[in-house]
Amino acid sequence: MSYADQVFIQNCKDILAHGVWDTQEEVRPRWEDGSPAHTVKKFGIVNRYDLRAEFPIQTIRKMAFKSSVDELLWIWQKKSNNIHDLGSHIWDAWADESGSIGKAYGYQLSVKHIYPEGEFDQVDRVIYDLKHNPASRRIMTNLYNHHDLHEMALYPCAYSMTFNVSGKTLNAILNQRSQDMLTANGWNVMQYAALVHMMAQVSGLEAGELVHVIADAHIYDRHVPIVEEIIAREPYEAPRLWMDPAVHDFYAFTKDSFRLEGYEAHPLDVKIPVAV
């Protein structure tokens, strides 16, 4: 059984059994028909994934791994905030007529800052420190720039990565202010696990743990029956991640630098409504 399945199933059972509903509150998200999108939530969920043991991907439904990597590269490698640079349409609802999502996600990673060693954006600073200052406790990124929030189409959900090296092992913490469990949990876990593998390989390190901290882990009201169906399924074993060992430049990775070997999963044969 995939460990990512075990974690997701337990998280969802806990939320459905012990979570708090916001049905008495005015909420911002809306369904396509204009109805308020209410949620049941748990505060402060922390999940740990040992990337040396297996790749954390769900098998109780088919996950679009290549599309998740494409979005990760759009943010972290292309440092783009324009959907025309993205292969999927997952950001279409938040883009303006030019395709921009404002000063969000990739835009924040592209901004350069001055350091004693020179000028770096956030991604290049991480790579520099992993190679030259691996004992540093300051290797992190932050997308939640309060100065620019008013110019973002959507405030960052997964907003911070903290990297920490122990010996030759690279560990990381993903901080997330808000998590739509059905549409985003499995997606974020697998793509940021891939990011840890990428950062480790280009820095001469081994991928270790990914710790996922979620402040507000929620399930939308119209997602409840879908979640209940999915978590009742019997999981398969986790697949193996293959990542091109010849790539040692972070900017040389493509979505085709990755594949999952032996990935077996249940089909997701239902349309998932998205709250905006």
Present the secondary structure layout:
Layout: H1 3-18, E1 20-21, E2 39-50, H2 65-76, H3 106-110, E3 113-115, E4 118-120, H4 122-132, E5 140-142, E6 158-166, E7 169-180, H5 181-202, E8 206-220, H6 224-231, E9 240-243, E10 258-261
Parallel strand pairs: 7-8
Antiparallel strand pairs: 1-2, 2-8, 3-4, 5-6, 6-7, 9-10
Helix pairs in contact: 1-6, 2-5
Describe what you observe in this structure.
- Helix content is 27%, strand content 24%.
- It has 276 residues and is α+β, with helices and mostly antiparallel strands.
- A hairpin with a 2-residue loop joins strand 3 (113-115) and strand 4 (118-120).
- The radius of gyration is 19 Å and the shape is globular.
- The model has no long low-confidence stretch (mean pLDDT 97).
General form: globular
Task: Identify low-pLDDT runs.
Answer: none
Order of H and E elements: HEEHHEEHEEEHEHEE
The largest sheet is:
6 strands, mixed
Range of helix content: 25-40%
Q: How confident overall, as mean pLDDT?
A: 97
Number of strands: 10
Strand proportion: 15-25%
Terminal CA distance: 33 Å
Sequence of strands across the biggest β-sheet: 1-2-8-7-6-5
The number of helical elements comes to: 6
Structural class: alpha+beta
Radius of gyration: 19 Å
Short description:
The chain has 276 residues and is an alpha+beta fold. It has helices at 3-18, 65-76, 106-110, 122-132, 181-202, 224-231, and strands spanning 20-21, 39-50, 113-115, 118-120, 140-142, 158-166, 169-180, 206-220, 240-243, 258-261.
